[in-house]
């Protein structure tokens, strides 16, 4: 996890604005760089680094001798960077996976560059020779990216919204901060004043379409048609390729409290640097495109077991023990606690003692957009405190759609029946 931050056409002193970049310092504890853009005195990049690859050249903004006019700040991992480097015989200056963006952009332009990337990423790319700024985000938005754009052309981009909240602008009203849409890139003209103008917003990949980078990764044995054994074989081939490729280097509170505390606990063990980096094989572009192309009746839960087809594909291969392959789905926040008393139950009991009925009754008037319907949902007050009038960032509450449910915890679902031995844990 790294933190990226950039301004184009700042109305205030950059040194003053830089204090906002420090609000995301937790994303990269190893180093920080703040760099002005040559020739544009009101444009700059900020980068917080978590050092994982190339200790010497891994700092950002990334620049190489071959493309002195290109500046790159990105957060994420490009899983197929070596394959693309070899395919097109690019000569890399560093060992950084993100350098592939510079070569692809120079050779093919922004849209093909983005569509060729297999990975999780958010990037800001500056081309001073052509006075263009590009920003983009991976297909599923695994890596976060927020942008602020004023009517007079001041652009600010950051990994987290908090790095944009207190920026100084010439606008009389607060500038709108929006999450950048996944699977898209945006193109800006960079004016001599440092201000920008958005000239193109385009989608480079849709999750139901096979990605363009698949053409450079020929997998033997893939079959055609919807015969069950063919489908299961294809699932195994695609998924195993994904795992190998990624191995190369509003349940909101329930999930993120333990996710936050666990890494904190082990942060003293320096050899766990790459723990705080997610692997998301089920979100692979090629794998999801294939899976979504299957007949709906093949994909739905079967015999009360969700993800039945995925489990069935690996049945009998002894790659995964049966007790893991067929165990019931359980959220991390549930699985880390006792079967007798789950974390979400403890959380609800605490909230019940802190929130009274009248507070919940006022929710409809307090929150004009998507008001909470439970006392637990009133924890949104904390969000509103830090990000007032930005409720559109949380457009809906997650809930299972394939079964009647009133709570997102798997333990509350009718199909969930814990084994007797689990109850003693």
Automatic annotation (TrEMBL):
Residues 2-191 form the Glutamine amidotransferase type-2 domain. One of its GO terms (molecular function) is asparagine synthase (glutamine-hydrolyzing) activity. The keyword Signal does not apply. Pfam families: Asn_synthase, GATase_7. Gene3D superfamilies: Glutamine Phosphoribosylpyrophosphate, subunit 1, domain 1 (3.60.20.10), HUPs (3.40.50.620). The keyword ATP-binding applies. Its EC number is 6.3.5.4. This is Asparagine synthetase [glutamine-hydrolyzing]. It comes from Sinocyclocheilus grahami. The lineage of its organism: Eukaryota, Metazoa, Chordata, Craniata, Vertebrata. The gene is LOC107568288.
């Amino acid at each position: 996890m790294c933190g990226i931050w950039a301004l184009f056409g700042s109305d205030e002193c950059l040194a003053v604005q830089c204090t906002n970049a420090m609000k995301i310092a937790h994303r990269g504890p190893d180093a920080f760089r703040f760099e002005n853009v040559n020739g544009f005195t009101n444009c700059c990049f900020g980068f917080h680094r978590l050092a994982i690859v190339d200790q010497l050249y891994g700092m950002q903004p990334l620049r190489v001798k071959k493309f002195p006019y290109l500046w790159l700040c990105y957060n994420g991992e490009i899983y197929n960077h070596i394959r693309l480097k070899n395919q097109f015989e690019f000569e890399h200056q560093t060992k950084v996976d993100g350098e592939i963006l510079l070569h692809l952009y120079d050779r093919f332009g922004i849209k093909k560059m983005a569509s060729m990337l297999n990975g999780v990423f958010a990037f800001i790319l500056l081309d001073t020779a052509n006075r263009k700024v590009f920003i983009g985000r991976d297909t599923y938005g695994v890596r976060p990216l927020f942008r602020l754009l004023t009517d007079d052309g001041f652009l600010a981009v950051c990994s987290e919204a908090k790095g944009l909240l207190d920026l100084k602008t010439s606008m009389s009203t607060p500038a709108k901060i929006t999450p950048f849409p996944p699977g898209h890139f945006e193109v800006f003209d960079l004016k001599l004043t440092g201000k920008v103008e958005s000239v193109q917003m385009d989608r480079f990949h849709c999750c139901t379409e096979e990605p363009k980078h698949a053409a450079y990764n020929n997998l033997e044995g893939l079959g055609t048609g919807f015969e069950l054994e063919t489908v299961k074989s294809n699932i195994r081939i695609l998924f195993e390729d994904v795992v190998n490729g990624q191995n190369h280097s509003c349940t909101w509170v329930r999930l993120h409290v333990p996710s936050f505390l666990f890494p904190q606990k082990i942060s003293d063990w320096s050899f766990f640097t790459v723990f705080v980096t997610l692997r998301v094989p089920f979100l692979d572009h090629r794998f999801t495109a294939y899976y979504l192309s299957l007949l709906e009746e093949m994909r739905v839960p079967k015999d009360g077991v969700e993800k039945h087809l995925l489990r069935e594909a690996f049945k009998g291969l002894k790659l995964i023990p049966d007790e893991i392959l067929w165990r019931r789905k359980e959220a991390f926040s549930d699985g880390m606690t006792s079967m007798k008393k789950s974390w979400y139950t403890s959380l609800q009991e605490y909230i019940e003692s802190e929130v009274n009925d009248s507070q919940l009754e006022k929710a409809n008037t307090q929150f004009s957009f998507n008001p909470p319907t439970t006392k637990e949902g009133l924890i949104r007050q904390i969000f509103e405190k830090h990000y007032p009038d930005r409720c559109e960032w949380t457009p809906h509450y997650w809930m299972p759609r394939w079964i009647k449910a009133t709570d997102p915890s798997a333990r509350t679902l009718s199909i969930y029946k814990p084994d007797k031995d689990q109850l003693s844990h």
